[in-house]
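We were asked to recover a plausible sequence for a given structure. The inputs and outputs are reproduced exactly as logged, with field labels preserved.

PROBLEM: sequence recovery
POSITIONS: 415
GIVEN STRUCTURE:
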């Protein structure tokens, strides 16, 4: 590829457990749950009546009135975190060729809320077509990356990835590769999702994919626990500023960590289920570590995809076992979806941020709510439960897997 190195120089987060990077990290380390009864619509008739919603979102603190009016919520989330990440990176955009900065963003569902609202209005108005001129621009999934570029005048490579729940890890991988190819010096990369809507929740309920523990939302997401019964829907966004190392060094940037490897594979197995033996996931981890030139025994922390579904959690552990074998004494595993819920296309971005922060802060956030490990969990695996583990992290690996059989892995390293 090239000898160009890629580093993370800015972060932005908007999550169910924090509306800034600082708040998100502090609440993750504290083991806080973001789950509660849904407030975005009346969930009375739904099997699942709770989710991990973003709380107290105030878009006008970072977005203009026009941006808010013209954008679906997933795009507002994207603009919001891109603003924080660019601020955090301290980039002087006046001094950088705009064609050297790109945006690769991800969203699994795009403007689902806009679509629902417009169709409801059409039906309510006796099928008279009075659609908003903003219907299509708000709906289409690529509009988040487009709006980020317009807001800051970023004229480099610009597009959107869609690989279901692997989406924003795919975006990070693509940005990483384009910088190594010399096609850009900086990328705003990440993902956003606003899937807490009637159609979305109803659809996932029909798949029997979500937890129905309505009597105790805060404890419903319990990865690897013997009593887990499905994932908890989440929403929000995460942005990472990826930058060519020499460019970052020259401007005296604060460097969080280095991206040293990334890979994707496909299960080619089932529309919604992961391969039971984790063959595709294992190969993606193997390739990402090979590219990073890191042995499995050097990995300190693995942020698992672990959504709290009966099949998915165990198939991921099977995949990890294939790569890490019996000697997992060094490897610590945790599942942050136990706190944030599952952000679908935004999951990889916020989990990538947690992986980077674990390196910077020397702390591994816990898997909350996991009280009794499933007997199928391989012996010797160290899953961090209940409380944050304070320890040095030199290498962190982030797993994401999506409907359609998409597996995406990224490897971060202390610099």
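RECOVERED SEQUENCE:
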């Amino acid at each position: 590829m090239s000898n160009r190195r890629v580093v993370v120089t800015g972060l932005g987060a908007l999550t169910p457990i924090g509306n800034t990077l600082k708040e998100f990290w502090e609440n993750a380390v504290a083991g806080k749950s973001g789950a509660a009864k849904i407030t975005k619509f009346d969930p009375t008739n739904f099997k699942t009546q709770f989710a991990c919603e973003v709380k107290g979102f105030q878009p006008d603190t970072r977005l203009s009135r026009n941006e808010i009016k013209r954008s679906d919520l997933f795009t507002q989330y994207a603009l919001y975190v891109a603003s924080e990440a660019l601020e955090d990176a301290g980039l002087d955009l006046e001094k950088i060729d705009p064609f050297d900065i790109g945006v690769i963003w991800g969203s699994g569902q795009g403007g689902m809320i806009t679509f629902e609202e417009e169709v409801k209005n059409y039906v309510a108005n006796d099928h008279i077509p009075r659609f908003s001129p903003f219907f299509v621009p708000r709906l289409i999934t690529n509009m988040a990356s487009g709006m980020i570029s317009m807001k800051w005048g970023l004229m480099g490579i610009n597009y959107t990835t869609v690989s279901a729940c692997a989406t924003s890890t795919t975006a990070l991988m693509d940005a990483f590769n384009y910088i190594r190819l010399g096609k850009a010096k900086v990328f705003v990369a990440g993902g956003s999702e606003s899937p807490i809507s009637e159609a979305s929740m109803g659809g996932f309920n029909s798949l029997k994919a979500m937890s129905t523990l309505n009597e105790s939302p805060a404890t419903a997401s319990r990865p690897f626990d013997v009593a887990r019964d499905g994932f908890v829907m989440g929403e929000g966004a995460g942005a990472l500023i990826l930058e060519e190392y020499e460019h970052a060094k020259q401007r005296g940037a604060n460097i969080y960590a280095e991206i040293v490897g990334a890979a994707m594979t496909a299960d080619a197995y089932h529309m919604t289920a992961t391969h039971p033996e984790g063959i595709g996931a294992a190969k993606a981890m193997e390739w990402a570590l090979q590219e990073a030139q890191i042995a499995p025994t050097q990995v300190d922390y693995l942020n698992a995809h672990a959504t709290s579904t009966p099949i998915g959690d165990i198939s991921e552990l099977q995949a990890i076992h294939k790569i890490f074998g019996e000697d997992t004494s060094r490897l610590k595993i945790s599942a942050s979806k136990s706190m944030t819920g599952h952000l679908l296309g935004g999951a990889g971005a916020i989990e990538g941020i947690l992986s980077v922060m674990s390196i910077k802060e020397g702390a591994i956030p816990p898997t909350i709510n996991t009280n009794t490990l499933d007997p199928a969990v391989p012996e010797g695996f160290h899953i961090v439960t209940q409380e944050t583990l304070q320890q040095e992290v030199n290498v962190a690996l982030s797993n994401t897997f999506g409907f359609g059989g998409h597996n995406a892995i990224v490897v971060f390293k202390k610099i």
